[in-house]
Amino acid sequence: MALRLVADFELGKDVLPWLRAQREASEARGAGSGGADVLENDYESLRVLNIERNGNIIYTYKDDKGNVVFGLYDGQTRQNKLLYAFEKDLEVFSCSVNSERTLLAASLIQSTKEGKRNELQPGSKCLTLLVEIHPVNNVKVLKAVDSYIWVQFLYPHVESHPLPENCLLLISEEKYIEKFRVHVAQEDGNRVVIKNSGHLPRDRIAEDFVWAQWDMSEQRLYYIDLKKSKSILKCIQFYADESYNLMFEVPLDISLSNSGFKLVNFGCDYHQDREKLSKHLSLCVFTNHTGSLCVCYSPKCAAWEQITYSVFYIHKGHSKTFTTSLKNVGSHMTKGITFLNLDYYVAVYLPGHFFHLLNVQHPDLICHSLFLTGNNEMIDMLPHSPLQSLPGSLVLDCCSGKLYKVMLSQSSLLQLLQNTRLDCEKMATLHCALSCGQGAQFLEGQIIQWISENFSACHSFDLIQEFIIASSYWSVYSETSNVDKLLPHSSVLTWNTEIPGITLVTEDTALPLMKVHSFKGYWEKLNSNLEYVKYAKPHFHYNNSVVRREWQNLISEEKTGKRRSTAYVRNILDNAIKVISNLEARNLEPRLTPLLQEEDSRQRLLMGLLDLIWHILEASWRKHNLHSWVLHFNSHGSAAEFAVFHIMTRILEATNSLFLPLPPGFHTLHTILGVHCLPLHNLLHCIDSGVLLLTETAVTRLMKDLDNTEKNEKLKFSIIVRLPPLIGQKICRLWDHPMSSNIISRNHVMRLLQNYKKQPRNSMIDKSSFSVEFLPLNYFIEILTDIESTNQALYPVEQHDNVDAEFVEEAALKHTTMLLGL
């Protein structure tokens, strides 16, 4: 199951036991009879009416006398409370309670039972009442009309003290919305009464609309009206000071002219014909805290062989229309499409047929969204009854009276990642799993374990690249504003492969016309997204060229010994130290992989999120049971070492193309394993092609660990001649060998003669000062001695590790002797 459902509320568990206890207590007082049978009758009529912003759930049932009883379940204290009872046999279809629980608004209609007389006012189908319930007192009739009326109290964000005025929305089937202002006052202690109940001030805030949706969490009203056959989506934001603003208008390319009238999330609507429900249009608006605004739409469906649905990514300026064919469609299809808001994702669900998880933050590429169809058990996970998607990833099943918290199931997504064969599903599943956020280190460990065994599992993208970038992105996304415009979220910029089972059409859409000019919170983020779409043409994509150029400049400066600013470089290295210390502090278990144990100046100049690469190596190290003795050159490579070497090579390929940093010590370990595992010609080829980077630490250890056998001499010399000059000079002094002496001598002579100007000299040479009578060498050594003497007089501090003309003479003689075979 791709989704995990956690029951947050159930009528059968959270309300029914309390009703049973109340009934038993009443019978004990002699005030009731027929307990069990009556309780079963109560349960049959027990249903949820509404869920308020503070989590309180309003429910209703009928007692044994047919009276309508209202109850409230407090979502925070998990306690039940009776609110009110009508001593008439009526049906309730809309109800709301104010935040202080002092007022109850309800709309009632005539009972559907045959033979019942009209209990309402003559000529009215619906009666809308406002009741004082703290304590139970007056009842005021707000509406007595021949059309349905829905009610909803506004809940201000400031709830620390009771407000003198309550605001109530009335939504009429006659396509208008009114806002009543209800002033209350306390009398006789805590008794709350309505002031001026004869005339309640009201405002008509919308009319001629065909669809409306209530967002109880953010106190927003979305509605669509038709202007010249165009569907215009509007939004009203209500504030704690009782004011409200029309925030935006945006045209939608959908047809609602013949769709009738529909409300979303104004309580539970039990009066829709469920047989017809599946063929009606589905339309809902979803937002999240990052400033996203999505409109999900599925038109009326005449036949079920093919189904179409659209998602308008208003915050991105485009829409996507999906079409999929259904198989094994029954003759009576009573379930329609369900849209679910899962924060960073929108789920489109048709029980038994398909499950589509759409990435809201990055909808451009279809490979970042997960589409499952067929017999996959993951597409049949939710209840088959009509569902209401509520803010906070809540889902209400009105039929069963259950409220669920819906989350992405990390374990199921990991299982799918391991079992699916399609690259597009691997890509989408990887992002879905990493976006969950819970137990990040454990999740990354599981993914790393799978990656270490399946490096070649994907052909359309580099799995290591995608994991490093996606994990880094999702780990900081929730804490950083607009980070998606600064950091990469994927290694893939284009995707041209079709997704099996679905076709897609992408179209640009009009941007909302904002009606206000000062933004805070969500509206500020939405406006920022819209400004980006409007002015960033073409849209930005992360490019590492600036980082690459800066790093190359730093490395060049390091080689030449010239720095632009010592403070600038020191600041970079200090930041690197902080990153490394944070990595070490985050992990309680000792590390097996010998990294971060050397001064790797290059990698410290390019420091970033290194922990993921370290985790990958740790997993491989543990899997192959390697130990610290691997760091010695005087051992032979095993199959386990070759496997880790291959993994490190793949990591290097992935990070090089993306220009990502590696943990200090990575190149040293990689080189040591290469020496263990590769024949000499392959090893040298890897060095020459840049796959292996020779570090001072690795070469120093090689010189010390290996003796001077003919094979090792050939390896050492091949390594030394490939070193940068500065490092090569230091390494040669560690190798007590004629070859290294020759190299040291050459470097010394080159340094002395680079500014040498020939001067007239005495042709007579003092032969007694030379151990061998060989005039060319004697003459050359005398010249070097003179230069050294001059330099010492001019620069007395400068020294070169006791390398002088005498050392050069000795090295030259040894080299000549070796060449002559003497």
From TrEMBL:
Which BP terms does GO give this entry?
A: positive regulation of amyloid-beta formation
Q: Where is the Gamma-secretase-activating protein C-terminal domain?
A: 610-717
Q: Name one GO cellular component term.
A: trans-Golgi network
Look up the coiled coil feature and give its residue ranges: none
Question: Mind telling me which InterPro entries this protein's record contains?
Answer: GSAP_C_dom, GSAP_fam
Write down the PANTHER family for this protein, in alphabetical order. Answer: GAMMA-SECRETASE-ACTIVATING PROTEIN (PTHR13630:SF1)
What is this protein called in UniProt?
A: Gamma-secretase activating protein
Source species: Saimiri boliviensis boliviensis
